Inverse folding.
C-alpha cells in the first residue's frame, strides 16, 4: 500500500480536488508545475540555502535525558521550535513563496488560526518584498493579539473573517474566496497538508525536511536511521506529515498521531477528528471531518488554536483508516500538564499544540531500548497567556 | 410529456423530456432565480416557488444551505447561515417540496455544495429529487472528472441534469469537455468572483460573452453572478440564452418580503 499521494492527489480514498470551477485554473496551474519546479536544481538550491541561513536548519535532534529517565525509554526531540518564527510552519512558507515567485505571482494570501502560519507567511513575504494578506477569524484576532501585531509589523494586512463561526475554518473560506476573486496574480499559501490537490502533497514535501534530517541525525547518534516510533501532534497535519514522511513506507517505524480531545471526546467540545469525524468534503478535499448528520461542518474546540480544525489532511485520514498510524487524542488538561512537565524537566516551553504529543508518554508504555522521536513542532512563547491563565502563574 | 428528441444528433429516441430542455427550446430569454431554502423564514420555500412561477420566471434554483459556502459572497452566505439557524436541513427541504408538482410546472434545480448531498447518499438524493420532480442539480464543488467516473450514471438513472460552471479563465479545451459532459445548459459565471460581487458588466465581460457565443456550443449558456437589474440582464442575454439572479433577489427578499417578489421580477423584464 502507498501512503503518498497518487497523481490525482488521492491517499487511498481520501484527497482529490473538490473545488468549484472558479478555482480550477489556479489549482491546475499549480498541479501541473509543482513537482517539476520543486525538482529544479536552482529551486532546490535556493530552498536549501534559505532553510539553512534564514530558518536555521538543520534543527537539532536532541536526546532528552531527564525525560528519558522519567519514562524509562530513549526519547529524542526534533527541535522545530528553534526554527525562525518559532515553529515548523516556516518550512512550508519558504517553499511556497519560492513556488509563487516561479509561477510569477505578486500577491500572497493565507489563512491563519492562532497566527503561527500567518506570521510565517508574513515573514517570507517581507523577505521577498511581496504583498501579503492574511485572513483570520474575528474571534481569533481578539484571542491572539501578539501574533496580529507581529503580522502587522512584518507588513501584512490582517483581514478579519466575519462569516460563520469566525475562526480558522472561516478564515480558510475567506482566503479561498479571495483566490476565486483574484485568479491570475495571487498565490494562496495554505498552512497545512489540507485543501485541494496538490496542496497536501506539496506541503508534505516541503515539510519532509524534518524526517530527512531525523534520519541522518539518528544515524549519527544511534547508528540507525529508523526510530521505533515517531510521535507528532495533528491539527491539519503538516508537522506530522513532515516527521513521518520518510518513514511512511517502513512498517518498522511506528507512527503515532496525537489529536486534541479538547474537554473530552464525548464532551461536545473536541477536535479529535479521527474519533469524531466522518468522510466528507472540506476545503476542497475528501477526508475525515467533523460534521452534523446533515453534512454541515461543525465547530471544533481545543485549548490550542492550532489543533482547532474540523478536518484533517487526507494523508492522515488514510494513515488512520489503513491502520498505518495509531491515532490517540489528548485532553486540554493532560496536554497542559505535559507542557509544564517538559518545561521543568528539559527547560523547553513547548507550544500547546506540541504539548499534546508529549502527553502520549503518560499513557503509552515504551520499552527501555525503544527509540522514540517526538516532533517538537513549536515553542510556547505565543501561548504564555494561556499557560498563565491555566496554571495561575 | 413524451416527445421525440434528437440525442447527439444521431438517432431519435423517445423518452421523458426534462423540463429544463423543454424550457430551453422555447427560444426565449431565460430568467432564472436563485433563492436559499429556509430563508427568510423556514417555511417560505413553497410560497417563494409558487410566487416566482406566477411572476413569469422561467427556471428556479433552490439553494440547499451549507455551513461553508466557498463560492458565495456575503449575501448568500448570510442567507445560508440564517436558513440553517432557522432549522433547514436536507430531509426537511424534501419534505417541504414533496407535493410541489401539484402546484407548479416550472423547471426546478437544486443548487448546493457537495458535502450535504454526499452525506445524504448521492443515489438517495437523486432518487428523492426524481420522486419530487426536481429537474437538475448544480453542485459547484463536484468536479467534472469525479462526476464522470462516480456519479454520471446515477444522475442519468434518475433523469437529473447536472449543470457545470465555466468562468472567464476556463480554457477552450475544458469548455469543450464541459460541453460534452452537459445535457442541459452551461452555467456561465460572468467574472472571476464569488456570488454577488460585481456591479454591472464591463468590456471584459462583453468580450467573454462574445468569445463563448462564438464557440457555438451544443448546450445553451445561462449567465450567472453579477446580474442585479434589467440592464445587466439585457447585457447578459444579448449573447447567452438567459441569466440567473441570486444575491440581488435575496437582498430584495430580505428587505421587502415574499409578497413583493412580483415587484422585483417586473423590474427585470
Ligand atoms: C506549534 C504548532 N504545532 C502544530 C500545529 C498544528 O498544525 P499542523 O497539524 O499542520 O502541524 C500548529 C498550528 O498552528 C502549531 O503552531
Amino acid at each position: 500500500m502507498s501512503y503518498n499521494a497518487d497523481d490525482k492527489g488521492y491517499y487511498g480514498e481520501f484527497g482529490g480536488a473538490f473545488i468549484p470551477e472558479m478555482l480550477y485554473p489556479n489549482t491546475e496551474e499549480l498541479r501541473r508545475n509543482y513537482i517539476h519546479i520543486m525538482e529544479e536544481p536552482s529551486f532546490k538550491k535556493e530552498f536549501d540555502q534559505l532553510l539553512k541561513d534564514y530558518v536555521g536548519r538543520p534543527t537539532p535532534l536532541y536526546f532528552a535525558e531527564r525525560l528519558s529517565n522519567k519514562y524509562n525509554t530513549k526519547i529524542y526531540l526534533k527541535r522545530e521550535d528553534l526554527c525562525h518564527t518559532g515553529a515548523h510552519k516556516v518550512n512550508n512558507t519558504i517553499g511556497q513563496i519560492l513556488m509563487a515567485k516561479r509561477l510569477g505571482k505578486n500577491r500572497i494570501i493565507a489563512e491563519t488560526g492562532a497566527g503561527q502560519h500567518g506570521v510565517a507567511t508574513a515573514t517570507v513575504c517581507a523577505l521577498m518584498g511581496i504583498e501579503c494578506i492574511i485572513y483570520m477569524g474575528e474571534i481569533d484576532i481578539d484571542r491572539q493579539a501578539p501574533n496580529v501585531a507581529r503580522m502587522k509589523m512584518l507588513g501584512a494586512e490582517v483581514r478579519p473573517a466575519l462569516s460563520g463561526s469566525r475562526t480558522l475554518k472561516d478564515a480558510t473560506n475567506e482566503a479561498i474566496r479571495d483566490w476565486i476573486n483574484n485568479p491570475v496574480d495571487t498565490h494562496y499559501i495554505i498552512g497545512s497538508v489540507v485543501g485541494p490537490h496538490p496542496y497536501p502533497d506539496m506541503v508534505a514535501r516541503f515539510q519532509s525536511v524534518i524526517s530527512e534530517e531525523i534520519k541522518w541525525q539518528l544515524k549519527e547518534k544511534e547508528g540507525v536511521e529508523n526510530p521505533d516510533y515517531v510521535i507528532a501532534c495533528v491539527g491539519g497535519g503538516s508537522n506530522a506529515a513532515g516527521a513521518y514522511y520518510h518513514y511512511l513506507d517502513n512498517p518498522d517505524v511506528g507512527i503515532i498521531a496525537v489529536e486534541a480531545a479538547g474537554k473530552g471526546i464525548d464532551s461536545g467540545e473536541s477536535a479529535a477528528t479521527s474519533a469524531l469525524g466522518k468522510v466528507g468534503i472540506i476545503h476542497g478535499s475528501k477526508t475525515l471531518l467533523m460534521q452534523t448528520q446533515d453534512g454541515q461542518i461543525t465547530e471544533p474546540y481545543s485549548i490550542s488554536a492550532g489543533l482547532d480544525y474540523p478536518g484533517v489532511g487526507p494523508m492522515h485520514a488514510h494513515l488512520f483508516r489503513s491502520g498505518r498510524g495509531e491515532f490517540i487524542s489528548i485532553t486540554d488538561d493532560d496536554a497542559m500538564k505535559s507542557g509544564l512537565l517538559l518545561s521543568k524537566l528539559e527547560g523547553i516551553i513547548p507550544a500547546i499544540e506540541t504539548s499534546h504529543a508529549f502527553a502520549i508518554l503518560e499513557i503509552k508504555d515504551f520499552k527501555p531500548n525503544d527509540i522514540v522521536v517526538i516532533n517538537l513542532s513549536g515553542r510556547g512563547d505565543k501561548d504564555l497567556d494561556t499557560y498563565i491563565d491555566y496554571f495561575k502563574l | 410529456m413524451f416527445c421525440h428528441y434528437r440525442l447527439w444528433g444521431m438517432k431519435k429516441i423517445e423518452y421523458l423530456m426534462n423540463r429544463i430542455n423543454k424550457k430551453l427550446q422555447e427560444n426565449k430569454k431565460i430568467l432564472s432565480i436563485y433563492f436559499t431554502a429556509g430563508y427568510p423564514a423556514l417555511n417560505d420555500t413553497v410560497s417563494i416557488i409558487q410566487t416566482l412561477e406566477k411572476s413569469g420566471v422561467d427556471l428556479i434554483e433552490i439553494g440547499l444551505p451549507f455551513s461553508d459556502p466557498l463560492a458565495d459572497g456575503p449575501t448568500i452566505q448570510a442567507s445560508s447561515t440564517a436558513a440553517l439557524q432557522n432549522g433547514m436541513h436536507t430531509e426537511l427541504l424534501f419534505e417541504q417540496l414533496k407535493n410541489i408538482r401539484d402546484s407548479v410546472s416550472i423547471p426546478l434545480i437544486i443548487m448546493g455544495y457537495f458535502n450535504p448531498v454526499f452525506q445524504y447518499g448521492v443515489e438517495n438524493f437523486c432518487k428523492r429529487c426524481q420522486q419530487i420532480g426536481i429537474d437538475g442539480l448544480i453542485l459547484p464543488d463536484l468536479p467534472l472528472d469525479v462526476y464522470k467516473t462516480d456519479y454520471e450514471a446515477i444522475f442519468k438513472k434518475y433523469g437529473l441534469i447536472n449543470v457545470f460552471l465555466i468562468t472567464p479563465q476556463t480554457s477552450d479545451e475544458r469548455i469543450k469537455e464541459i460541453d460534452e459532459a452537459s445535457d442541459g445548459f452551461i452555467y456561465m459565471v460572468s467574472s472571476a468572483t464569488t456570488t454577488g460581487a460585481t456591479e454591472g458588466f464591463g468590456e471584459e465581460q462583453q468580450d467573454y460573452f462574445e468569445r463563448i457565443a462564438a464557440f457555438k456550443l451544443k448546450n445553451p449558456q445561462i449567465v450567472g453572478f453579477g446580474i442585479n437589474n434589467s440592464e445587466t440582464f439585457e447585457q447578459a442575454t444579448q449573447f447567452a440564452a438567459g441569466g440567473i439572479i441570486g444575491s440581488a433577489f435575496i437582498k430584495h427578499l430580505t428587505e421587502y418580503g415574499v409578497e413583493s417578489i412580483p415587484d422585483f421580477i417586473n423590474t427585470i423584464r
Remarks:
- Residues 122 and 150 of chain B are 10 Å apart (CA to CA).
- The interface with chain A takes residues 66-71, 73-74, 77-78, 81, 84, 89-91, 113-120, 140-143, 145-146, 164-167, 169-171, 174, 189, 192-194, 197 of chain B (CB under 8 Å).
- Residues A 87, 114, 116-117, 192, 233-240, 306-307, 351, 353-354, 377-378 surround pyridoxal-5'-phosphate (CB under 6 Å).
- Chain B has one domain: 2-268.
